[in-house]
Amino acid sequence: MRWFRKSETIKAMQAFKLKLDKVIGIMLMLIMAIMVLNVSWQVLSRYVVQSPSSFTDELSRYLLVWLGMLGAAYVAGQDKHLAIDILPAKLRGEAKRKLLIVISIVIVLFVIPVMIMGGINLVYITYTLEQKSATLQLPLAYVYLMIPFSGLLVLFYQFINLQSLLTKQDSQN
Fold first, then answer.
1. b vs e for 95-107, b when ≥16 Cβ sit within 10 Å of the residue's Cβ?
2. Domains of the chain: which residue ranges?
3. Could you tell me if 70 and 64 are in contact, meaning their C-beta atoms sit under 8 angstroms apart?
4. Tell me: the pLDDT tens digits for 65-85?
5. pTM value surpassing 0.70
6. What is the pLDDT of residues 29-67, one digit of tens each?
């Protein structure tokens, strides 16, 4: 006896994806707003007050890393990431669907070892060595934590994409 139907699982995952998209969108807006305020304070303190703030440069660098990594995961989930789409644009039907499945699998094969496992390793090493940033004295493990987190998001989005592509095949048969 099945506890749930396949369509119910797909609907639940799609609903979760929509909520996740909203949360990530809000996080990106907050990071960007903090970055704008931080850089504005840097300019103001340097040129108006004539006493440059010591932490703003480092904070803006780390916020930019977080913005880039989280933003890349977000656009991957929206299927708006940077891609060379010459071949998918020329293909139609089943051939295009199969190519998109292969592309999603290649992305998963990149994300797991590089972003997730490599990112976790980087976080572990910097945490173990107790590396801290020069000015903020922030543990660098917190900064690098965005790499495996973004990798997990990309992985989730690719599984949703694969599920959608494979479901299209099921509905065609």
1. eebeebbebbeeb
2. 6-172
3. no
4. 999 999 999 999 998 888 888
5. yes
6. 999 999 999 999 999 998 998 888 889 999 999 999 999
